[in-house]
Amino acid sequence: MNVVCLDLEGVLVPEIWIAFSEATGIPELRKTTRDEPDYDKLMKYRIEILKQHGLGLKEIQETIATIDPMPGAKEFLDELRSITQAIIISDTFSQFATPLMKKLGWPTIFCNELEVGENGEITGYKMRCEKSKLTTVKALQSCGFETIASGDSFNDLAMIEASKAGFLFRTTDAIKKDYPRFPAYESYDELLAAIKAVL
What we know:
Layout: E1 2-6, H1 16-24, H2 39-53, H3 57-64, H4 73-83, E2 85-93, H5 94-103, E3 109-116, E4 122-126, H6 132-142, E5 146-151, H7 157-162, E6 165-169, H8 173-178, E7 184-185, H9 188-198
Parallel strand pairs: 1-2, 1-5, 2-3, 5-6, 6-7
Antiparallel strand pairs: 3-4
Helix pairs in contact: 3-5
């Protein structure tokens, strides 16, 4: 039995933090897991910038409400789910993901939780588990599933590496250069064909 494990941001929806950076005019918030492999360091950096500017969950959610899935993402996901199981494994947060899951037709997502004060200030975050993407893929494998994984960032590489097949999708030239062993695709049709070939 197979299960496809997909990253969310950069693969199915635009990067939330980049959209928020553009909405607020704060360029420092453009940094993502494509730029910073250490997720804890990245999140502490983001939380500090939000604090400096007096921004909280409400402002980010207002931006998320304006974000639509990438063109073709829902159709890709619908077709994929008609032929195999699929789970989105993301380092985003349930407070960010829910409106986007609605627009994608409510696929299954495993993600994390923000810690939010009564005034809406983001004070911290809670990861589901350590090395959440790799740990989840290994847990699925322990349940008898063979995993196929795809993502675009540093934090996707471990789950791609650990799976029976793994693909980079709309990633950076630097990651493609450093990880030439992983096929890299730019279109949903290419990615779907590659997944179908290993099912």
